[in-house]
Design goal:
This is DUF2171 domain-containing protein. It comes from Frateuria flava. There is one protein chain. This protein has about 100 residues and is mostly beta strands. The chain has a domain of about 70 residues: SH3 type barrels. It is about 5% helix and about 30% strand. It has 1 helix and 6 strands, in the order ββββββα. The protein has a 6-stranded mixed β-sheet with strand order 4-3-2-1-6-5, with no helix packed on it. A hairpin with a 4-residue loop joins strand 2 and strand 3. The longest helix is centred in the last third of the chain and has 6 residues. The chain is globular and about 40 Å long.
Length: about 100
């Protein structure tokens, strides 16, 4: 059974990568959650955009993310790592190509 999501959980595009944001709100009745993506702002995501939840971490399913979220995830760490392009280092784990 998947761990319940709570505000404050960190958000990732792949396990073992740097976090890309945090959960702000959980709307159980609508099966949506609001996440803040670093350098991108707040986004409302449907439940099917979540691949896994464990140990206070929410792992996104990149294939189910709306285009605006995918765009925001292209440079979540630009302030810390100016040369980074994607939220995940492994192209099969969230390298958000268009």
């Amino acid at each position: 059974m998947q761990e319940p999501i709570e505000p404050g959980f960190m958000v990732f595009v792949a396990d073992g990568e740097l976090g890309v944001g945090a959960v702000r709100e959980v709307h159980a009745d609508s099966r949506e959650l609001v996440v803040n993506i670093e350098n991108g702002g707040d986004f409302t995501l449907p439940a099917d955009a979540i691949r896994d939840v464990h140990e206070g971490k929410v792992i996104l399913d990149v294939a189910h993310l709306p285009p605006d979220v995918r765009q925001a995830l292209k440079r979540p760490h630009a302030a810390e790592y100016p040369d980074s392009v994607y939220a995940a280092s492994d192209p099969t784990e969230g390298a958000l190509k268009d």
